[in-house]
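Re: 2'-deoxyadenosine-5'-diphosphate structure - here you go.
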Amino acid sequence: MAQKNGIDGRKKPNLLITGTPGTGKTTTASALAEAAQLRHINIGDLVKEKNLHNGWDEQFECYIINEDLVCDELEDMMEEGGNIVDHHGCDFFPERWFDRVVVLQTENSLLYDRLATRGYTGSKLSNNIECEIFQVLLEEAKESYQEEIVVALRSDSIDDLNNNVSTLSDWLRSWNMS
Ligand code: DAT
C-alpha cells in the first residue's frame, strides 16, 4: 500500500498536544503514545534533562526555555515522524513539523483544583487560570498553524481523557493507512 507523506515528506505523523498547565497534556500524550506506539516528547522534561534553557525564572518559577536549542534538538526526530509533543506553548516550533495540533481545555474550577493539588499558589495559580479563561493556547495555536489542523478537545473527566485518546488513536491510524 502506498504510504502517505506528511507536510514534510515524513512517513509517520507528528502530533502536538498543547494547553494550559493541568489540562492533561502529559496524561493524554503518554496514554496515546502507548496506544499508538509513538514517541512521547515532554518538552519540559527534555529542557531539564538536556539543559536547553537560559536559567531559572524567579518570577514565573520555571526554566527560561532556549527555543533555538529545543528546536535543534528535535529536528531529526521530527523529520522522521511518529512523535507526540507535549508542551504548554506552541508558537516557537516550525509550522511544518505538525500534522495536527490538539488544544486541551478544562473547566476553570476543575483546573483550579488540579493546579492547587500540584502546589501552585498565588500569581502562578491565577495566571494559569486566566490563561485558560482567555483561551490563550487556542488563540496561539490558531495563529501559529493552519486552522484546519487545530482541534480543541475537552479534558474535564476521565471519560473525556479516554475519548480523546481513542479519537486521536483513530486519527493516527487513518493517517497511517491513507
Ligand atoms: P499537564 O501535562 O497539562 O500539565 P497532567 O497530564 O499533568 O497535565 O494532568 C494534571 C492532573 O490532572 C494529573 O493529576 C492528572 C489529572 N488529569 C489529567 N487529565 C484529566 C482528565 N481528563 N480528567 C481528570 N483528571 C485529569
